[in-house]
Structure prediction request, 419 residues.
Amino acid sequence: MHVDGKRVNACLTLAAAVDGRAVTTIEGLARSGDLQPVQQAFIDHDALQCGYCTPGQIMSAVACIREGHARTREQIREWMSGNICRCSAYPQIVVAVEDAAQRGG
Amino acid sequence: MTAGRERAAFLAGGTEILNWMRLGIAAPDRVIDITRVEELRFIRADGDRISVGALSTLNEIGEHAVVVRDCPVLAQACLKAASAQIRNSATVGGNILQKARCAYFRVEGDPPWPCNKRQPGSGCAALSGENRHHAIFGWSEACVATQPSDPAVALAALDAEIHVRGSNGARVIPAYEFHRLPGDDPGRDNVLEPGALITHSDIPRASDARRSFYLKVRERESYEYATVSVAAVVNGKAGRITAARIALGSVAHKPWRLTVAEKAMAGARLDAREIDAALAPAFADARPLAHNAFKIELARRAAVRALLEAGAVQ
Prediction:
């Protein structure tokens, strides 16, 4: 999730500690029914299998692109690491993030 | 962090203490959130020092232009820690207060085996158990765990000073004396008194700190703790080392300065053979456990490489 625009691990964040801060989860990404470009790229590139890690991957990717850490595939792999995908959809995830970044994420 | 009130604890990034609470390593009855104490969140470059507030996150330090330029070893150590998301929460103060990654220690609930860190006097299961990732320097029969912080290793090599404040007032602790060896009291990881708080670290802006490098050797290239790590700072002239500072990580219960080798390093040519020869005496007192003798050779080779990399910085 994003706290004040920065990506953090929800599982390591107490709700009380973000009182008054801006919190965005995957549910808050699409605007009036239009998917955010990273969401669309994950669909276009089939960047998921079971879908369990997908919300975290997408939230992380949106911030990763905004930070300027998605300029090359190597950089995407490093700065997206920590988002584990047990189905191992990593090649498609990297392509989806790269595509979204090139479209201005 | 441990706050003064019995069983109260400070919460900064939360990425470590929440794990302690989940595992049963800590059971505070009050958690004091200090993340909005803005006075502890800064990075300032004033003249002869860089001052880093304890609440600065690992990403803030790792991507700070002055830190990257003037003491790259610290920026690299911060960015090689954890993952991008964790580094947005994790503070440098909390990072150096993290506890051992020993699997016998980090078990959920009451450990079904001896662990002196969890149950003083019960023994150390790692001493005769799986100890591939454990200490090769300074361990005791009571504990063979290592300190896993990456920034702590860089701060030790940079001769940084850690400023703390508690009910007895403020004091300054050299970074390489902040953590302690286990001895017969492995429950204490560092010299911070109960209730005290790290406020900031001061890093001398020595000219040689620009020529510095952090090498982290691990089983996976990202999002993994070090098997061994090296922070190297090199002062050189005409292809020769005039002075060097070297700290190893994940080899002891504290960042391990190679002070003997640092002295031997002065005058050595900046090449692998002469550096390795100067390092030799520092490894003479390494004591491997059953499964980690490989770390001695690995750490020595890593130190050679880190020194060469540091010396090559223009």
User: Anything to note?
Assistant: The mean pLDDT of chain B is 96.
